Amino acid sequence: MYLTDPIEALKHQLDTLGETAKKGFVRLSTPCQVDNLVGWLSVQSVLPHIYWKSRDADAVEHVTLGAVKAFDSLVALQADLAALAGIGGEQPDYFGGMAFDPDSPGWQHFPGCHFLLPRIELRRQQGVGTLSLNLRFDDRCPDTEIAQAHACLAVLKAEKALPRLLPYIYQREDRPAQKEWAAWVERVTHPNHLGHTPKVVLSRQTCLTAPEMPNPWALLAHWQAGAADCFHFGIQLTPHEAFIGCPPERLYKREGRHLMTEALAGTTRRGQDALQDQALADALLADKKNSLENQCVYQQLLTQLEPLSSQVQMGEAHIVKLRSVQHIRRLIHAELHQDVTDQQLLAVLPPTPAVGGVPRESALAFIHQHERHQRGWYAGVFGRISHTSSDLAVAIRCAHIGPEAIRLYAGAGIVAGSQPDEEWRELDTKIADIMSLLGMG
Ligand SMILES: C=C(O[C@@H]1C=C(C(=O)O)C=C[C@H]1O)C(=O)O
Ligand SMILES: [Mg+2]
Asked: Name one GO biological process term (predicted).
């Protein structure tokens, strides 16, 4: 029997699932055409909602609903990955992220670490959509699992157009304000401080309040349309808040034993025309302060990868052009040793000096002592993990949308040669895209 309604098709597959098929992880799939995946996600009542699209040109677009299983620690996640790999067969994708400081995450409702195996997945690659239902039979009663899956399918709704973004008048408050920021930069760039801590990435929270908040998914849809070459993500764990972002920076991508990572640090604005844009790019590559920001990141990545891998190779410094900013980037490739897991990589690599500093401990101590806003999942990790491959972004260029405020986050690497006013302007260029979408540009 061939059913054209994808939900009916999945129900049918669920009802006719053979007893021998009720083993380990099972994914039931059917073709499904949806115009706008974010629009489809936005109308669903089942939480959590996750949106994930990697930055590669042909990347799969994923939206997920609900959770078959959720993990608040990397140890638990890795144990589950290993358990399913042991059973064999198709392996699932887990989606989620981690706070900047997993031991003290700071945002209510956002655990230090949260990855989940979704109940429902809708994915699209090269125009082809697939709706999937995920089930687990290894550690639970099959009848209960099937009943829960049915309950989830029963409440799926048809796609609706996303609401329009209305131009609200927002009140803006920066934490810290510019004067205090300047004092921090002076302190970090004092020769005594630079002597023991050459880089600290300081951050600012820009709090925007208005009587009404925009729909976070409509905001993400607009934001991503103007952010090619970036990762796109959104997560909604509870009804009235969401965390979205379009980060340009990869934490790492793993395909089997092959690891790709990068040092993305050093920033300038875009030019008014092609000539000025090129002049700004050339100046950025030649600039000592910006090169030092980048160097701090790649040196630490190379040091951390050394014991975990072989054949570590780094490419030339080059420029990445985004809508409002240009960055220096160096790509790094390595072959991981046989037993190295995502759990290990995620325990070692973040926070990189792109968002923390060097040495890590003293940079983090400075951040904790001075920043009064909670970074939460800003500057943390977001992405997809599976047995065969993983892809994770550094959660920058992001917004937390709550019931009363939108909180934007931006950081800047403070090193020898940093000037308070220039670094303050750099924070503004980093939030320029989302600010203009909100009518605040
Ligand atoms: C910390 C952020 O970005 C980081 C800091 C950069 C810099 O200071 O030049 C550039 C890219 C990222 O490494 C952010 O966007 O919030
Ligand atoms: Mg910088």
From this structure: menaquinone biosynthetic process
- Ligand number nearest to the C-alpha of 248: 1
Map out the domains of the chain as residue ranges.
6-154, 171-437
User: Are the C-beta atoms of 332 and 251 separated by less than 8 Å?
Assistant: no
Q: Which residues are annotated as a binding site for Mg(2+)?
A: 293, 426
What does R_g of the chain's alpha carbons equal in angstroms?
Answer: 22
End-to-end CA distance of the chain: 54
pLDDT in tens, the chain (441 residues): 455 799 999 999 999 999 989 899 999 999 999 999 999 999 999 999 999 999 999 999 999 999 999 999 999 999 999 999 999 999 999 999 999 999 999 999 999 999 999 999 999 999 999 999 999 999 889 999 999 999 999 999 999 999 999 888 999 999 999 999 999 999 999 999 999 999 999 999 999 999 999 999 999 999 999 999 999 999 999 999 999 999 999 999 999 999 999 999 999 999 999 999 999 999 999 999 999 999 999 999 999 999 999 999 999 999 999 999 999 999 999 999 999 999 999 999 999 999 999 999 999 999 999 999 999 999 999 999 999 999 999 999 999 999 999 999 999 999 999 999 999 999 999 999 999 999 998
Pick the ligand that lies closest to the CA of residue 393: 1
Residue nearest to atom 5 of ligand 1 (CA): 412
Range list of β-strands (E), 12-127: 25-31, 49-53, 61-65, 69-71, 93-98, 113-117, 120-125
pTM: 0.98
Q: Candidates 3.40.50.720, 3.30.2290.10, 3.40.109.10, 3.60.120.10; correct CATH number of 171-437?
A: 3.60.120.10
State residue 10 phi and psi, 5-degree precision.
-70, -40
431 C-alpha to ligand 2 centroid (Å): 13
Question: Which residues approach ligand 1 with their CB closer than 6 A?
Answer: 201, 249, 264-267, 293, 327, 354-355, 396-397, 409-413, 430
* Ligand 1 mutation target, pool 174, 189, 199, 201, most atoms within 8 A of CB: 201
- Select from 245, 248, 243, 244 the least CA-distant residue to 230: 248
* Two tokens, residue 279: 């002049």
